[in-house]
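User: Okay, second chain of the day. Same drill as before: sequence in, structure tokens out.
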Amino acid sequence: MKVKNILVSQPKPADISKTHWESIIKKYNVKIDFEKFIRLEGVEASELRQDHVKLTDYTAIILTSRNAVDHFFRIAKEMRYTVPDDLKYFCVNESTALYLQHYIQFRKRKIFYGNQSFADLVEIMKKHKEETYFLPSSNIVTSEDYTEMMNAAKLNFKKSMLFRTVPSDLKDIDITKYDMLVFFSPAGIDSLKINFPDFVQGEVAIGALGSSTAKAVTDAGFNLSLSAPTQTAPSITMAIEEYLEAEIKKAKKK
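Assistant: Same drill. Structure tokens below.
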């Protein structure tokens, strides 16, 4: 089998032995390295002031990720904004809502959450049209157009960037030793191009999680070897297994 070394562009799990990655390592005798290709950089309070953002103007906060939670409370502290007890929180899913416990007394606050999609959350917000919403965001364009959906629902809101996704410094990595690269966002592809401008794919397999990541791979001029989710591979680890099984079959035929 050609694939011996795999580079996964995200942090190594805290306990890899409890993950599907470990079973791939043992079953296919491959080496898997984990490396963050991107990092988050917080926007400073001065930038928000230039954008005429006053947190006191809003009665509700929309939180689409744990990162949004972290950076909202970070910027609130930097702007010396005391988060009021009656502030309402609208979270994209339950896990994001529960993450608020790191910053507030969960049971004493007005917290709402959807299933998974932002469209679900908009349906909830429609029942609270009297609120003035603040939507913390990043510089990454999502597959769902939050602004368009909120405008369509005639909600009163302001969207403002609180954090940026920027490439990590990967210059110490020998990218040529890997037979497979696995990406989880378009920003990861950007990081690959920035850190390794001379990278040539050749026979290196490239995997992508999500349609936007897959598109970024092909837009960058690379061949997409595997992707998830699909009907047979709902996760990226399952997609990798499918690819490796196919490689084994090819090798046996030779």
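The chain has two domains: 5-37+168-253, 41-165.

User: Thanks, on to the next one.
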